[in-house]
Design a protein that fits this description.
125 residues, Helix Hairpins, 4 helices
Amino acid sequence: MMTKPGKTGIARLIAAVGYSFHGFKAAWRYEEAFRLEATLAIIFVPLSFIITHDITHQIALLITCALVVIAELVNSAIEAVVDRISSDIHPLSGQAKDIGSAAVFVTLILFITAWGLSIWQYFNP
């Protein structure tokens, strides 16, 4: 089996962390939807510890926050690659972007449902 050329071991791990931070920085700088969803996550993560004291419930709420951010990062990456390949309008380019957007939409529905029910339970025990 052939391995990729380049860094190995701990150096590769450190480089990967650096690439991830570059990705976060680019998403924050260029993607308004990412800024909005990341800001909402920053608000909702601490809120999860207020509205429930059950660790399983807290983890579920935290996962919904993370899934929205992850889906937006993947969607932004898809959009960047499609835009890099060509600025021409093509059905497959639109399809790729629409599918990425649909993934974000599904995670947002999950987030709204989980948080809506949790907040309802908090105020109506």
